[in-house]
Amino acid sequence: MRGERFKAVADAIAASIRAGDLPAGSRLPTHRELARERRIALATATKVYRELAAAGLVVGEPGRGTYVRDLSGFAGLEPRRLPPEHRVADLSFNQPLAVDQGDHLRRALRRLAAEGDLAALLTQQPPGGRHADRAAVAVHLLDRGIDVPPANVLLTAGAQHGLDAVLAAIAPPGAVVAADALTYPGMNMLARTRHVELAPVRCDTTGTDPHDLERLCRRRPVVAVYLIPTLHNPLGFVLDADARQRVVGLARRHDFAIVEDATYAFLAPEAPPPLQTLAPERTFYVGSFSKNLATGLRVGYVVVPEAHLGSVTRALRTGSWGTSGITSAIAVGWLRDGTVTRLEAARRDDARRRQSVARQELAGLDYHAPSQAYSGWLRLPEDARADLAAHRLAEQGILVSTADAFATTPHTPSALRIALATPALDQLTHALGRVRETVTRL
Questions:
Q1: Can you give the residue ranges of the HTH gntR-type domain (predicted)?
Q2: Which secondary-structure segment (H or E) carries 283?
Q3: Distance (Å, whole) CA 34 – CA 30
Q4: Is the pLDDT of residue 184 over 90?
Q5: Pairwise CA distance, residues 41 & 31, whole Å
Q6: DSSP three-state, residue 105
Q7: Reduced to 3 states, what is the DSSP secondary structure of residue 417?
Q8: Helix (H, G, I), strand (E, B) or coil at 100
Q9: Ramachandran region of residue 334, left (φ > 0), alpha (ψ -120 to 50) or beta?
Q10: Which end of the chain is more exposed for a tag (fewer CB within 10 A), N or C?
């Protein structure tokens, strides 16, 4: 089949979609039906749909068919935002706030102004942060069961910066990194930018499937596995102790690194020990102060195995040289005076209250979340589409995240991730009621 014939078929379908002749949610012919209707080879029909999917115009759902995607821009990896004046509630992003957060910042700034050499905060910090600041984080991590010297703790400009530095250090372009089939969207972005292949591992609301990870390792040369074992984003599970031991056993048997994302781990202090404590020689433990303190603070850290300290430090230097001295000083001051401990306890109480509201408002729907999580996973009815649900909610001023934002596979479930931390409680109750009404009418 000539290339122009394939392009003509793809362009014709794309034009019909963009013109509205094939509205969002329309089911397209099967590959065989398309081949017969257009008088093209079956392989060419498959190529047409692959091209349309890459353009973001259609989505294939196993066992159901190929559907026209909603083009409003409110679904997917980088969704469109609503202007604040049109926004009723943002359930797409967790930005926990506290009523006294501004007062905490005022006190912290006054302390910085009154103590020590203020001008020193305006000088360039070393990559990985100053030793005293790294020591403060190392002491903080003792409460997580992680006992490492300050030299193995590198400060970053948030968890995303830390993940990027780790990938740069251990995963060259073309490398295979295993990750849950549904995982943190920021890792998807990083993998694409660094030309790293994310190989999906089966998972569900009960956890990562170690058997599937083992099957992958037997087939592919995996250099690392990226996991969120405690309060997974988006599925919310806490990986049990047995599964953690099995992951560590596989890592040693197949000699791959473990990248452990602990962004939400502070919400579940009763969780099994971190993977880092089970395999410190090969685990990169990535955390931040975004969810327990403030998303705008942009301070994080990576606990790095001794053998990789040099390479990760160089990656941090390449990416941004170092962290901000002012934001690091604020975070470290809050570590030392107990503010972090108090705010984490308050966040845990807040998450439980919000999850209680969510369970009440979404009762009867296929909603999954542990009681201490700041988000939940809402499976939609079998014949419903997540992109259409996101569009209809956006029309009401409510933003949500669709499953494809988290997918490492071409096929994604029809589901929404509901983030609970940002709206005020009364706004949250109202917004979740709208979610319930919208989903039941799909």
A1: 3-71
A2: strand 283-288
A3: 6
A4: yes
A5: 10
A6: helix
A7: strand
A8: coil
A9: alpha
A10: N
DSSP state of 83: P
pLDDT digits (tens, 9 = 90+) for 99-143: 778 888 888 888 888 877 777 777 788 899 999 999 999 999 999
Could you tell me the pTM of the whole model?
Answer: 0.87
pLDDT tens for residues 68-90?
A: 877 777 776 666 666 666 677 89
Pairing relationship of beta strands 366-368 and 375-379 according to DSSP bridges = antiparallel
SS3 of the chain: the string is CCHHHHHHHHHHHHHHHHHCCCCCCCECCCHHHHHHHHCCCHHHHHHHHHHHHHCCCEEEECCCEEEECCCCCCCCCCCCCCCHHHCCEECCCCCCCCCCHHHHHHHHHHHHHHCCCHHHHHCCCCCCCCHHHHHHHHHHHHHHCCCCCHHHEEEECCHHHHHHHHHHHHCCCCCEEEEECECCHHHHHHHHHCCCEEEEECEECCEECHHHHHHHHHHCCEEEEEECCECCCCCCCECCHHHHHHHHHHHHHHCCEEEEECCCHHHCCCCCCCHHHHCCCCEEEEEECCCCCCCCCCCEEEECCHHHHHHHHHHHHHHHCCCCHHHHHHHHHHHHCCHHHHHHHHHHHHHHHHHHHHHHHCCCCEEECCCCCCEEEEECCCCCCHHHHHHHHHHCCEECEEHHHCECCCCCCCEEEEECCCCCHHHHHHHHHHHHHHHHHC
pLDDT at 263 over 90: yes
Gap between the Cα atoms of 184 and 201, Å rounded: 14
Of the pLDDT bands very low, low, confident and very high (cuts 50, 70, 90), residue 372 is very high
312-362 pLDDT tens trace: 999 999 888 778 888 998 999 999 999 999 999 999 999 999 999 999 999
> What is the pLDDT at residue 200?
97
Residue 47: in which H helix or E strand, if any? helix 42-54
Domains, the chain: 3-68 (1.10.10.10), 84-94+341-441 (3.90.1150.10), 118-337 (3.40.640.10)
Q: How far apart are CA 401 and CA 235, in angstroms?
A: 12
pLDDT at 1: 40
Side-chain half-sphere exposure of 419, counting CA atoms within 13 A: 21
What are the beta bridge partners of residue 418?
376
CA dist., res. 170 & res. 104, Å (int):
38
* pLDDT value of position 124: 80
Residues of the chain above pLDDT 70, percent:
95
